[in-house]
Amino acid sequence: MDSGIILTQSQYDVIAKVFRAADTEESGAVDSSQVPALGAKVLGSGVKESDMQLLRFKAEVKGEEGVMTFADFLELMSEVMAQTTRWGNLGTKLEGYVGFDTVQEQIRKKSLKRGFEFNLMLVGESGLGKSTLVNTLFKSKIARTSCTPGPHVIPKTTEVNSVSHVIEEHGVRLKLTVTDTPGFGDQINNDKCWTPIVEYVSEQFDKFLNEEVSINRKKVLPDTRVHACVYFIPPTGHSLRPIDVEFMKRLHHCVNIIPVIAKADTLTIEERDAFKSRIREDIRYHGINIYPSAYGAEDDEDAAANAKIEQYIPFAVIGSDREVTVGGKRLLGRQTKWGFIEVENKKHCEFAQLRDMLIRSHMQDLKETTDKVHYETFRHQRLQQSHNQSYLGESNI
Q1: Given its phi and psi angles, is residue 5 left (phi above 0), alpha (psi -120 to 50 degrees) or beta?
Q2: Does the pLDDT value for residue 176 go beyond 90?
Q3: Core-most of 71, 100, 297, 327, by most CB within 10 Å?
Q4: How many other CB atoms are there within 10 angstroms of residue 162's CB atom?
């Protein structure tokens, strides 16, 4: 039980009682398929989906020839308990107030002093309103729009430009880095226009890994990894284009992709709904991982929040960083001959849903998915390559 914890007598008794109830033939072993359910019974009603996934994985690894002995089950539960704090029936009851419930407040104070980071990438053709959308999202002049005075030249190849800002709201500081990709999809021949973007994302992973394995490691590692990539789909009303499919297939393994339909006010409601439906079908057909549906949920609460978001993907958005007075109120939107388009009105577009997901409900989860899924995959591959090269070097000596 090297990777597990040392069980107390009371914990041992709970595990033994559940195992014996399942071992009806008193053979000292149970069918491996029963193990996840037995583990859930031991942990109690507080067990989450992530714990169940861990139980299923451990059961597959430890179950030999489709059966598991009591000793293996004990070891399995010990290892599972080492990886979660949701012990349920195995937890120890307090006999009085201790005070560690203040840890949450301690973390909050420490985090507020340090500030937060969020790195957002915008990808799409010129003229789709990328800069306007990010300015609308953060209600500040974060990005330079194409209508800003001054020369605006479309690059001959895809460029990757990052700009950082520190913004503050109610005492919370956020270092926001916005990465734009001018030139993407703007040429007659767009072959491999995604390559600079893939290279940039990988470079940020490399930088973080080098800092992580450095002998003189910084107290707080600078994090330039891309936490979210908002991909702008032009409002053609048809389906995904080959460049859309190819880009997302190249990037979905290393970044959280969030597709949006740009300038959605150019489509009728019926056209918009049909377009969204075809895009979803294309995403499923090509096996593209879209955030958050592709990465599961930690518990029922997260699953419900994700399901609410998934019904809007791809988000049909309208961007405007200009305020217009309507009925005595200052509102973000655009005045047209046929009426006023209000950006933050959920009846007009899905900008508010995108903003809530990116900033108000899933910002931390986007960062954690980047770290625990995308970066971890990259890190494993890089260290494996390094190990293999070292092994080959030793073999040649």
Answers
A1: beta
A2: yes
A3: 297
A4: 15
DSSP reduced 3-state for 309: helix
Share of the chain above pLDDT 70, in %: 93
* 393 CB burial (10 A radius; 0-12, 13-18, 19+): exposed
**Distance (Å, rounded) from C-alpha 314 to C-alpha 363?**
18
Q: From CA 329, how far away is CA 15, in angstroms rounded?
A: 63
Question: What letter would DSSP give residue 161?
Answer: E
Run of H or E residues at 19: helix 9-22
Q: How many CA atoms lie less than 13 Å away from 281 in the CB half-sphere? A: 8
With a pLDDT cut of 90, the percent of the chain lying above it is 43
* Whether the Cβ atoms of residue 319 and residue 264 lie closer than 8 Å to each other: no
pTM of the model: 0.80
In this structure, the chain runs to a length of 397
In order of 133, 136, 177, 194, 259, the CA distances from 316 in angstroms are: 12, 15, 24, 23, 9
Tokens linked to 221: 């590692």
